[in-house]
Write a structure and sequence with these properties.
Layout (H helix, E strand, L loop, with lengths): L3 H15 L1 H23 L9 E11 L10 H6 L3 E2 L5 E10 L2 H23 L4 E3 L12 H6 L1 E4 L2 E4 L6 H13 L4 E5 L2 E5 L10 E7 L6 H19 L15 H7 L5 H10 L20 H8 L22 H8 L5 E5 L13 E5 L2 E2 L4 H20 L9 H14 L7 E2 L5 E2 L2 H18 L4 H12 L7 H14 L4 H15 L10
Antiparallel strand pairs: 1-3, 1-4, 1-9, 2-3, 5-6, 7-8, 9-11, 9-12, 10-11, 13-14
Length: 512
């Protein structure tokens, strides 16, 4: 697990993060930096001249037997990807581009090129990236051994299969302190308890970003985004099962029926929220915004977890260098949609900073084509709803939240909530999907795309309207195998191998 010097550095980092004086200094800097952000919002210094889009794509690695495996450092040296919490995790980013026809095409090219670079770097080691939202074939030692392996050094827990970065270790120990030393996830068919938050690394996601050029309009886009999460997630769900060896094989068919289509959401919430009541933990569905300055206000008001002070307060021309403590705290301000301040503007205006929506509820998709389609749906929909003055924000917040968690539970069969363009409340799925794609087209046209190009982007997701989403594909195959006599664990492994045979290719899920 590293030499004595590494352990000493990790222990020291945890001690620094728990020091009351350093916490007080950290919180003071966050408040001061948030006030600067508020002033910049009021003065228009976060306004930009363009909408812009970006993407984060998370994945995990598997070996030649499709088992979860750590990623060698050499892969990160060769490919344009970043490390994540678990040794098996990676993240591919596509740098932001202007939201127009050329920019979206560039997004597709960048995402594809980055995924291919990871594939090439891993292939030399007989490994492969899995474009999937939750790993289900465990490593050779088993899930419990992998997720539960820790070492305690001077009172500090260090998880063996976590990236041993000071901020991760400090965060792990903070949450363990708050949860009584055990992180527990309780879902249909299994209860998992570990002395580390590494169970969170089960889940992987994609996160489309949309830079809003007018900060004053940011609440309109944010509040509209909240009301789209249920319908969009119902078309994207992709994580119905835990690793195969987590189940006890009792009542297998009942577990297949009961398990959420988006198990990733409760796994992440339960692993981080440490027993907090629903809706009150660090990970939750956010409230509406009244004004753009609510974005920094909420970061300030959020509980401080594992603070890190910048080594010095020297500022550069980079905006984020002026808000380093704020930026760190925002990084653990986990909400399923959140506002992010400080990115470099995209467009003709190259200096200053921006404000953007980070759309976080979506699971990693099986193919690049499906991923690009989902990105186009999200950014087109948000732009289209606001540009057209659609009354979607008249939908009560509680209905938006309930629709989101209904989609978590039931995927394409979820009870969804919507307000139509005529101002009528509806739960008719067909009507909701009609407007979803109509207004995504409106937003994409507003960005300068022609109808043929728009249809090409949206087709892979629009064809899922009949329920052929990845989670349903997975459930159907596991259910069929159980009905044929397989145990649940056997059925999940067979399904996962079939999924990995298809994932990463050019055949979209609707054609599986």
């Amino acid at each position: 697990m590293g030499d004595d010097a590494d352990h000493a550095a990790l222990v020291a980092a945890v001690e620094r993060s728990t020091d009351p004086e350093r916490r007080e200094t950290f919180d003071r800097r966050v408040r001061d930096q948030a006030e600067r952000i508020r002033e910049d919002i009021r003065a228009g210094r976060l306004d930009t001249d363009e909408f812009a889009v970006g993407m984060e794509l998370e994945a995990y690695a598997v070996d030649a037997d499709d088992r979860l495996t750590p990623i060698p450092d050499a892969v990160f040296d060769r490919a344009d990807c970043a490390t994540e919490l678990g040794l098996h995790n990676l993240e591919v980013n596509s740098a932001a581009t202007v939201f127009d026809a050329a920019g979206l095409a560039d997004q597709a090219d960048r995402i594809r090129a980055n995924v291919e670079a990871v594939e090439d770097a891993m292939a030399d080691r007989d490994l492969a990236p899995a474009l999937d939202a939750m790993w289900t074939i465990p490593p050779a030692e088993g899930t419990d051994a992998y997720l539960g392996a820790i070492e305690r050094r001077d009172g500090v827990v260090v998880a063996a299969n976590m990236r041993q970065y000071p901020r991760y270790v400090a965060l792990d120990n903070e949450i363990l302190e708050r949860s009584g030393g055990e992180v527990t996830v309780d879902v249909p068919g299994a209860t998992l308890s570990y002395p580390t938050i590494l169970v969170e690394s089960l889940a992987t996601s994609i996160q489309p970003h949309l830079q809003i050029p007018d900060a004053d309009a940011f609440p309109q886009y944010f509040n509209a985004a909240l009301r789209t999460t249920g319908p969009v997630l119902s078309l994207a769900s992709n994580s119905p099962f835990l690793p195969a060896d987590c189940y006890d094989d009792a009542d297998d068919s009942a577990i297949v029926d009961a398990t959420p289509h988006e198990l990733r959401i409760p796994v992440f919430e339960q692993s981080i929220n440490a027993g907090a009541p629903r809706g009150e933990g660090k990970v939750r569905f956010p409230r509406d915004l009244d004004r753009a300055t609510d974005v920094p206000d909420r970061v300030v008001a959020d509980e401080t977890y594992a603070p890190v002070l910048a080594d010095d307060e020297t500022e550069s021309d980079d905006y984020r260098s002026r808000i380093r403590e704020y930026d760190h705290k925002r990084g653990v301000h986990w909400r399923w949609v959140r506002g992010v301040v400080g990115g470099q503007p995209v467009g003709t205006e190259r200096e200053g900073a921006s404000i953007r929506i980070e759309y976080r509820p979506l699971p990693t998709q099986p193919t690049v084509r499906d991923t690009v389609s989902l990105q186009a749906l999200v950014v087109g929909l948000l732009r289209g709803l606001v540009v057209a003055a659609h009354p979607i924000t008249a939908l009560p917040w509680m209905d938006a939240r309930d629709g989101f968690y209904n989609a978590v539970a039931d995927g394409p069969d979820a009870d969804l909530h919507w307000v139509t363009a005529d101002g009528d409340r509806t739960t008719e799925t067909a009507t909701i999907y009609d407007e979803l794609f109509d207004y995504a087209r409106r937003g994409l046209r507003d960005a300068g795309l022609d109808d043929g190009t728009i249809d090409g982007y949206l087709a892979p997701i629009e064809r899922r309207r009949d329920g052929c989403v990845p989670s349903a594909w997975k459930k159907d195959r596991v259910r069929d195998a159980v009905d044929d006599g397989a145990t649940l664990s056997e059925a999940i492994e067979r399904m996962q191998q079939a999924y990995l045979d298809r994932a990463g290719g050019e055949t979209v899920v609707a054609d599986w």
